[in-house]
Amino acid sequence: MHHLRAPGVFKRMGTVSILEVLDLHTVKIIAQVHDRHRSREFIKLLEEFIP
After folding, report:
1. pLDDT digits over 10-26, tens only?
2. Distance from CA of residue 22 to its chain's centroid?
3. Where are the domains of the chain?
């Protein structure tokens, strides 16, 4: 039996990605919420964390 596959575009149904960084020196947490989960979002978070 073959399962039907979803079309090429995958729609996330209300799911968001939460990325967080913890600075152990200052105990500061930087968090961001994004609609997508790609390396761009992670790099953006790191750029905010590292001046």
Report:
1. 565 678 888 888 889 89
2. 15
3. 1-51
Mean pLDDT of the chain: 78
HSE (side-chain half, CA atoms, 13 Å) at 46: 5
User: Which residues in 14-36 are b (16+ Cβ under 10 Å) and which e?
Assistant: eeeeeeeeeeeeeeeeeeeeeee
How many Å apart are CA 29 and CA 48, to the nearest integer?
11
End-to-end CA distance of the chain: 54
Q: How many whole angstroms from its chain centre is CA 39?
A: 8
pTM of the model: 0.54
- Radius of gyration for the alpha carbons in the chain, expressed in angstroms and rounded: 16
